[in-house]
Amino acid sequence: MLLGRLGLDTARVPHGDRHGLLWLDRGRLEVEDGCLRFVTRAGPEGGATLAPGDYQIPHQSVSAVLLGPGSSVTHDALRLLARHGCALCAIGEGGVRLYTAPPLMPDTSALARRQVELWAVKATRMEVARRMYALRFGEIVRTRDIAVLRGMEVGRIKRAYELAAERFGVPWRGRRYDRANPVDADLPNQALNHAAVTVQAAAAIAVASTGTIPQLGFIHEDSGQSFVLDIADVRRHDVVLDIAFGAAKEAGKRPESIDRLVRRRAAELFRRRDVVPGLIDVIKSVLAPREQDDDGKAEAGPATDPEPT
């Protein structure tokens, strides 16, 4: 391992003091003289986020590098990133897919331990689910019955579909989805399926970046990505609908597949609305310790409500 500049080869900057994510695409991530550099020749007109140039990457002060399409990475770069606890995630353009993410291995287990503590007790698991639904509905949810919450969601999302279709001027005949033949659905329904996948990828990036545990969901239960699905659903009523119905409207003007239109629109919207950083904030918010719940009562915890799952 070369010493690098400023003698920072052994620097260990806490993740809490680092910048969060660095987005790179259409270039080569490599090491020269012990320093991480990213060389790109594709300008913004070619779809890249950076102008052509040779950029030195402050890997000691970044928690994760998101490497987009048209990029390559050397073995030395992987070794340098691992040495400094900086994760490298291979993503689709704009974060609409997450292909792989080496373990971030953050310097603190506080958030993951908090997730486990909240998930392991029925009462606190329900409180986190209520916080998530409150974020989605924009109001405090009083019920503590998960079945009631899911029933409330069905009615609200159905109306949200109708309003979004009206806003974008897209014909809407209801949600129809045949898992055995997904391409048999009409364009708005196909677009909704593809848009949900893009937002799930953004949520997966957020979960990987925070070092939380994908399998431990508070609303979803069986999937190995349950917590990812929980976090993605927080933006189901706005981001997913804007991506899907906007792409469905655009499909009548462009001779492209609906999947490609959705990906392009999602990538642009992710950047403009800071979707991934926003989902990271959601994770921190719903897992944050609270002395009182949303009804003003003392929040139940393992010491006061030991009921196991």
UniProtKB/TrEMBL annotation:
Disordered, as annotated region: 290-309
Record EC number: 3.1.-.-
Necessary cofactors: Mg(2+); Mn(2+)
Listed InterPro entries: Cas1, CRISPR-assoc_Cas1, CRISPR-assoc_Cas1_C, CRISPR-assoc_Cas1_ECOLI, CRISPR-assoc_Cas1_N
Record keywords: Antiviral defense, DNA-binding, Endonuclease, Hydrolase, Magnesium, Manganese, Metal-binding, Nuclease
GO terms, molecular function: endonuclease activity
Chain sites annotated for binding Mn(2+): E153, H220, D233
Lineage top rank: taxon: Bacteria
Enzyme class, broadest EC rank: hydrolase
Protein role: CRISPR (clustered regularly interspaced short palindromic repeat), is an adaptive immune system that provides protection against mobile genetic elements (viruses, transposable elements and conjugative plasmids). CRISPR clusters contain spacers, sequences complementary to antecedent mobile elements, and target invading nucleic acids. CRISPR clusters are transcribed and processed into CRISPR RNA (crRNA). Acts as a dsDNA endonuclease. Involved in the integration of spacer DNA into the CRISPR cassette.
HAMAP family: Cas1 (MF_01470)
Name of the featured protein: CRISPR-associated endonuclease Cas1
Lineage: Bacteria, Pseudomonadati, Pseudomonadota, Alphaproteobacteria, Hyphomicrobiales
